[in-house]
Amino acid sequence: MATVSNSSNSSRPSTAELEQRRAVTELDLEQEPSAEWGWHGTFPRATQIAGWFTAAVMLLMLIGNHRGRVEDVFLVLIAVTMAFMLVRDIVKRRTHWRR
After folding, report:
1. Whole-prediction pTM value?
2. Which is higher by pLDDT, 24 or 56?
3. pLDDT tops 60 at residue 9
4. Are 79 and 58 in contact (CB under 8 A)?
5. Residue 71 sits in which domain range?
6. Residue 88 maps to a domain
7. Does residue 5 form part of some domain?
8. What's the confidence (pLDDT) of residue 25?
9. What are the tens digits of pLDDT across the range 34-93?
10. Residue 46 belongs to some domain of the structure
11. Has residue 44 been placed in a domain?
12. Direct distance between the N- and C-terminal alpha carbons of the chain, in angstroms, rounded to an integer
């Protein structure tokens, strides 16, 4: 059975350990230029493909054996909203340099 120490000194990192942590987290901005502004990659082409695929599937769900039309209204509204957002994304990507 493991014992747990209640000593407050054992839970705090030492000064040498803190200095070592700082040394590891500091980056050379000439070696890693994207680290300065926090680069996070995106996948715009895959996002577009997935978005259009999902909008098409939403419209394909209209084919079914349901009797009510409330589902149809929601499916069409969601698909149209997704299509609008995808087209807006395409336009924004093409014209972002014009600011």
Report:
1. 0.56
2. 56
3. no
4. yes
5. 11-98
6. yes
7. no
8. 54
9. 655 665 567 788 999 999 999 999 999 999 888 888 999 999 999 999 999 999 999 988
10. yes
11. yes
12. 65
**More confident: 22 or 42:** 42
Task: Report the C-alpha gap between 18 and 1 in whole angstroms.
Answer: 31
- The position carrying tokens 């149209």 is 80
Count of domains forming the chain: 1
Structure token digits, residue 61? 């769900």
Q: Which amino acid would we find at residue 63?
A: I
Tokens linked to 41: 């990659």
Under 8 Å CB-to-CB from 79, ≥6 apart: which residues?
Answer: 55, 56, 58, 59
Distances (CA, A) of 23 to 27, 29, 33, 36, 38: 8, 14, 18, 16, 19
Give whole-number Cα distances, 47 to 34, 71, 76, in Å. 22, 26, 20
